[in-house]
């Protein structure tokens, strides 16, 4: 039986594949709008899958909670699962999931990823008003979309060890199908102008340096060159048994041992009132690292036997620290 995290991850990947397929259709005037809607949905599912992965697949970790109003008009001390009009439980939003991962679970997600998602959501929220005209705005949207896709693939590989080679994922450069040398002559309506200004200002306002594998927007500059093909190096992706071994168990390792040292320490710091990352903590942790139920030492580059190694932890290790530290009774405990 597949875990809840894996089910959400599969749905996320399918949503992103649908977004790409629609975007790459030769004649489809609603491509930017549809891509932004599906891609935002894909990201929300991905972030929730990651939270479930880090929190032992507890559904309560991705649900919205609220205080109820008592008979005397005061708010209840307990928080209850929030429901929608049909009576189903409401899950957390995209950005709440992102902030939980960074602040509560200490996941190292670059801030530039959030900024890219903010741009993508802005495109989605404005999608009913614009983008059906041929304009430079479409190029700006693709730059944001391309960064969104590369960020997505980097995190899915990092978090879940998914191999994307079988999907052949790419966004077709719009220069293949559109005449962007005439884009400047197109008149933008007021909504388009405002969004274009927002995207351009956001792209130029970033102060921090972007990590290697993550971007807020990717500048697209397409050139075609004639070549004889001589001297080209052949590259192929293969699952042949005689190919360089990259074990498929990597996905299972990532899911069973999702915590690194920093994330484990952050979780313990929030769980106990008397926790400190001192000699006592290191002594307990190192003793538990010898048990494969709690810790797995793996290569940072699985394909390179000389790569540096790093310890990753199963979520069950946290309960072992209950024997040594005092739980924080004020910590949020979800109710049904």
Written overview of the protein:
With 336 residues, this protein is mainly alpha-helical. It has 2 domains: 4-66 and 89-205, no CATH class; 257-323, no CATH class. It is 43% helix and 7% strand. It is built from 10 helices and 4 strands. It has helices at 4-23, 31-54, 94-103, 111-125, 136-160, 190-205, 250-256, 261-271, 279-289, 317-320; strands at residues 65-69, 75-81, 295-299, 309-313. A two-stranded antiparallel sheet has the order 1-2. A two-stranded antiparallel ribbon has the order 3-4. A hairpin with a 5-residue loop joins strand 1 and strand 2. Helix 4 crosses helix 5. Mean pLDDT is 78; it is low at 175-188, 231-237 and 244-248.
Quick tags:
336 residues; mainly alpha; 2 domains; two-stranded antiparallel ribbon; 10 helices; 43% helix; 7% strand
Give the integer mean of the pLDDT values: 78
DSSP helix count? 10
N-to-C series of helices and strands: HHEEHHHHHHHEEH
**Class based on secondary structure composition and strand pairing:** mainly alpha
Q: How far apart, in Å, are the first and last alpha carbons?
A: 24 Å
Overall shape: it is: globular
| Computed Rg | 23 Å
Residue share in helices?
A: 40-55%
Total strand segments: 4
InterPro entries: DUF3644 (IPR022104)
Organism: Modicisalibacter xianhensis
Domain DUF3644: 8-204
Protein name: DUF3644 domain-containing protein
Summed up:
Residues 8-204 form the DUF3644 domain. Helices cover 43% and strands 7% of the residues. It is mostly helical and 336 residues long.
Write the layout of secondary structure elements.
Elements: H1 4-23, H2 31-54, E1 65-69, E2 75-81, H3 94-103, H4 111-125, H5 136-160, H6 190-205, H7 250-256, H8 261-271, H9 279-289, E3 295-299, E4 309-313, H10 317-320
Antiparallel strand pairs: 1-2, 3-4
